[in-house]
Design a protein that fits this description.
Helix 3 packs parallel to helix 6, helix 6 packs antiparallel against helix 7 (about 140-160) and helix 8 (about 170-200) runs antiparallel to helix 10 (about 215-240). The protein contains 13 helices and no strands. The chain is mainly α.
């Protein structure tokens, strides 16, 4: 009986630490696999193993960054309508304890990367500095903030490329950059949309509305979608000789953007985390699965 009570008392603490490192955000690190998926090395065990370890490194270091970011923003988060529930802002985990976990994850990430490729270690350290600079200096500068976030995603892709020794094409990189920039802009729009409709009287909401231009944001998203789709078309055409059927994958990508734009500009649940909204949506999951199946089908001899 006492053992059961001890376990039940530990569960809330364990949940707080899971929330602290934001495991559900690790799905972003699947970008590390993109160079492998679009290369001819996917079924090479050593290449897959290296990319998997690189992805694990990014999972650790991204969680480390989230922790330090939450420590830096703990006072602002405490006054935020829904960020106040984060473990550090809510006082469920002390800043000192969070620092220890953050440093451990950072060291673990760099240590693992040193056994794979020194270039990966540099990319991870660069990512860490990039996001810390963003958290301290650029959070309230929307354009620069979006670019920094997009570059952070691109570093994931480059990490996956260096560990298998491939150089992604310019069109492939352009497609990913414009797509990630679109997601960064849409994420901010989603956050403000929730604040405006669920917490209209909040000081945070009023301050954000003053700095945010809806018409400009809508135009920016449209331009980025056009740029991303155009880049993808050129990318698909560029590998048509190797994968003749791959050009038809553009239809999956078009629907993917359509679905993303709907999800990130409307409120259909009480979920306030854009990542949870995406990974819980049946449409996104289905189109992602179909796209991967089509990719493997078109890659088959």
């Amino acid at each position: 009986m006492d053992i059961r009570l001890d376990i039940l008392s530990i569960l809330p603490v364990f949940k707080n630490y899971i929330l602290l490192i934001r495991i559900h955000h690790w799905i972003k690190n699947l970008l590390v696999f993109f160079p492998l998926i679009f290369s001819e090395k996917f079924f090479i065990p050593e290449a897959f193993c290296n990319v998997f370890k690189a992805c694990l490194c990014f999972c650790f270091i991204s969680s480390s960054v989230y922790i330090f970011n939450d420590i830096i923003d703990r006072k602002c988060d405490a006054a935020h309508p829904f960020k106040k529930n984060r473990p550090i802002a809510a006082g469920m985990i002390s800043s000192q304890g969070a620092v220890v976990i953050g440093i451990f994850l950072l060291i673990a990430s760099i240590t693992i990367s040193l056994g794979i490729a020194i270039q990966l270690s540099f990319i991870l350290f660069g990512y860490f500095l990039l996001i810390i600079i963003y958290s301290i200096f650029l959070r309230n500068r929307p354009i620069l903030a979006a670019i920094y976030i997009a570059v952070g995603f691109m570093l994931r892709m480059w990490a996956g490329a260096v560990v298998i020794g491939v150089i992604p094409s310019l069109w492939f990189q352009s497609w990913l950059f414009f797509s990630m920039l679109y997601l960064a802009v849409s994420k901010k729009n989603f956050e403000l949309y929730i604040l405006k409709h669920k917490f209209p009287g909040s000081i945070v909401t009023k301050n954000m509305i003053k700095r945010y231009d809806y018409k400009l944001a809508k135009l920016t998203r449209l331009i980025l979608i056009i740029c991303a789709l155009s880049s993808y078309v050129f990318f698909a055409v560029s590998i048509k000789l190797r994968l003749p059927a791959f050009a038809y994958s553009i239809f999956f990508v078009i629907y993917g953007f359509y679905r993303l734009d709907i999800l990130l500009t409307t409120i259909k649940s009480n979920v306030t985390d854009s990542i949870l909204v995406l990974i819980k949506d049946p449409g996104i999951l289905l189109i992602s699965f179909c796209y991967l199946c089509f990719l493997f089908y078109s890659s088959s001899p």
